[in-house]
Structure formats: structure tokens, C-alpha cells
Records
---
Amino acid sequence: MKYQARLLSTGSWLCGCLVIMLMAANPVVPEASMFNGTGMWLALCVFTGLYILPMLGKLIKIDYGYYLLTGWLAINLLLFIVAGVPVVFSVGALGLRLLLGVTALLGLIDLMFWLPQALVPERPLQET
């Protein structure tokens, strides 16, 4: 069960990174595209750091990682829900809009499988 939780965490991280990149490439106003800009890379670094930090808790045997990651993934739901705004209102390329919508949907499905595991008493990311 611990490995399934790690796999789902990695899946939500990958979907989140893709959503950030696709939202930067497909803004509501095409002239405001910030793909490959400093803001996109900073957002990806912060996003990745917020996933790595709870995983470090396991390495140094601190129990905070499980709770941090559960809270972060719950907040991450908002990212996938907000990603629907450019899908609906964007005037950008249809392919980018569809890819963003599919990626956000995959991220939501991934989190819907992960969050019930967070509620089990065994704490799937920690060694017991």
C-alpha cells in the first residue's frame, strides 16, 4: 500500500507539472503566453519542492510528511479545478485546450484514488 501511495503521489506531481506548463502555454489571452518564462519555471520549482519536502520526512523518520502531503494534495485539487477555466474560456489552440482538460481530469482521478488512502490508519507513506 505504501508503494501505491508513492506511485499515486508521483502521478499527481506529473499531472500538476503538465497542468502548470499547459496553462502557461495556453492562457486565456494568447498574447500573454508565458511558456518557458521565468514564472513558469519558478512555479514548477515551488510545485516540485512542495512534493519533495514531505517525502524527505520519510527519509529522516519524521512523521510530518504524511500530513503535509495529504494537505498539499487536497489543495492540489484546486489547481486541477482551476485548470478548467482556460479550457472553457481560452481562444488558443484546440489541441492544447483538450490536452489541458485531459491532464486536469487525470490529475483529479489520481487524487480521488490517493485521498481515500490518506484516511486509512496505516499511513501509506510512512514505515510502520
Note: Residues 1-119 form one domain.
---
Amino acid sequence: MSVKRSVLTVAVALALAVGGTAVTAPPASAATTVTTQHTQGQFDNNPGNGAESWVWVWTNAPLGGGIEWQYYDGATDSLYTSNGTAQSLSPSKDIWRARAWHYISTEVGAVKKFGLWS
């Protein structure tokens, strides 16, 4: 086999190998993360499970914490979890923004301490 034919054979094999890997699924979207001192939450409008969106929250705040989100239509919702646990759910609408929160103890009782909107 000549050198020219060997180079051509390698080039064709390489083109087929690269061409075969070019047809791939699009990557999953990255979730947006929101935090406070004791709580972490995430939301994703392309979760890959067939749902419109997905939210998750975890906290180590002694009195618990959560994630609050706002939809594009202005409606809001939230998800609470207790100390050391996590919760998730799949809302039926896309989420515009979210913020994490946790309860703090005050002289008048427990109040929510909010993080910034994403």
C-alpha cells in the first residue's frame, strides 16, 4: 500500500469517526442557584424530565428554610424544608426568578430572612 493511499484511508476513517460523533443531543441546561447563609436552592426551566421547570431547596437553618420563586406571569410560589433536609418539585410553568430564605429567631418569634432575587 502506498503512502498516499494510507494517508487517504486514515483521513476517511477519521472523517467517519468525527462525523459519527457530531450528531449528539443538545446539552441539558444549567440550573440557576440561589443562596442565603443557611439555605441553597436551584431552579431550571429545562430540566430534561418533561416538566416545564424544576425547583430544589436544602437548608441547615435550625428553624428551616426554603425557596420562593416568581413566574413570568407575576404569580409566586414557595417550597419549605426543615433543618438538614432537601425538597424538590416540578412546577407547571417556567420560572422567572427565585430567592432562597431561612427562618431566624427574633424577640417576636421566627421571621424569614430573604436572599437576593436571582
Note: DSSP finds one helix and eight strands in the chain.
---
Amino acid sequence: MIGRVFLIYLALIGLAHAGLEQEIEQQQEIENQLKLELDKQIKITKQAYQDVMDFISDAPMNRDEQMKRLIDAEIEWNVFIEKICLLEGIESINTRAELANKLQCMLKRHKEKENFYKSII
């Protein structure tokens, strides 16, 4: 009787372990996909920024001041994205979802930045 209970116990532990491995694999796939999407979005956002810089470089008035402000805004915006995504992910600290949540946040914020740059032109 004790032997059967022990075997059932071992089988359940094995099933739980297999489920955990599958969950970790799925989480890693999600993170890898989000990383690819984020890299693509950052490139798109950088191009939108460059388009605005090109547009401003042709400005007849206050060109230098406009470019300086845009450069400063870009730097601060990147700091903002990093900090806001850390804050938004506070509920998932030390969980498997922490990185995925941060990547989703960064993807969203970079899309917002791209839209802003496109609205300037």
C-alpha cells in the first residue's frame, strides 16, 4: 500500500515538473517574440525620429533650437520609457512574467513615441 502511494506521488511530481517545463518554454517563446517585435519597433521609431530631424533641418527659423529640443526630448523620453516600464511591471517582480511585461510596456511606449514623431511632420 505504501509503495503504491509512493509511486503515485512520484508520478504526480513528474507531471508537475513536465508542466512547469512546458510553461517555462512557452514563456521563453513569448519573450523571444516580444524582443523581436521590440527591436523592429525601435528601428521604426528611430526612423520616425530621423524623419523629424530631417524635417527640422530644413526649417527656416529656430532650426538649431528646434533640433536641440528634439535631441533633449529623445534622451528624456528614453529615460521615461525605461522608468515607466519598471513601474508598470512592479506587480510582476521576481515572477516569470516580469521580463514579458517589461517588453510589452516598452513596445507600447515606443509605438507611442513613433506616433508622436509622425504627428510632427
Note: The first helix runs from residue 2 to 57.
---
Amino acid sequence: MFIAHLPAGYLLTRGIVRKRETIWRPALAVGLIFSLAPDLDLFYFYLVDGRRTPHHDYWTHAPLFWLAAAALTVLALSLAGKRQYLIFVGIAFANVLLHLFLNSIAADIRWLYPFSDIRFNLVEIPARYQPWYLNFILHLDLRSGDGDLRGGGVGLGE
């Protein structure tokens, strides 16, 4: 899913600012940065944590963290009289939410954390192959003839 975040961020940002050409470049920069922002935890995941904790369990994949950050930024900009920059907060928050939504298709996201540890995903891709990305390429069971997902299903992750 990682390679989907940048194009999705581009399309979302373009949709938001389509009639505001004067802010297109800075809006695109904000949109693309925040379309990837939740995955900045990958540096910690690989370099410090040694891949012991699923990176979707870090705070960068907690929607409440991003909501709080956006709310504090809106408050700070409003108090500073810089309301013209609020559009950028909206673009950033929208791109983070899009990132988390896209992750929720085939990966677990704890949308209600810290109030609940329930993990949400649309389909579950079983870890059967190495390297990890082959699981997303080879997850279709073509033996059934209908392309059903093997071992997955639709609903909540465990």
C-alpha cells in the first residue's frame, strides 16, 4: 500500500485546491508530505525497534493523535491571526486520514485507539511469503477460479 499513498495524496490535494491556483504548490507539498507522514515511523521500526512491534501500532497510525495535532494547530493559527493557513491544516489532516483509510483496506488500523484496541481492516492478507510484499502480490487464490482472497475475508481484524 505504501506506493499508493503519494498518488492518492496528489489526487486528494488536487481535488481540495482545484480552484485555488495561487496556493497549488505549497498545498501540494503539504499534501504529499502528510500523505506519507504516518509512515515516518518506519525509520523507528527498522532502525530502533528491530521490527518487534507492528508499525501500525505506533502513535503515528492513531487517528486521535492526528486529530489532536490538527486541533492544536488550528487553535494556534487562529490565536496568532493566521487563519489564511487553516486550509493547509485541512489538507494535511485529510491526507493523513486518507493514508489511514488506505491502510485499513489490507492492514490493521486501530481507529478507536486509545479507547479501544479493536483493529479494523477490509481484508486480511495472511503472511505466507518472504519478502513481506509478496503477500500482497500473491494473495489471490486462483484455484477457485473467482479470485477470492485466501484465508482473509471481510470485516474486523483480530
Note: Confidence is low (pLDDT under 50) at residues 143-158.
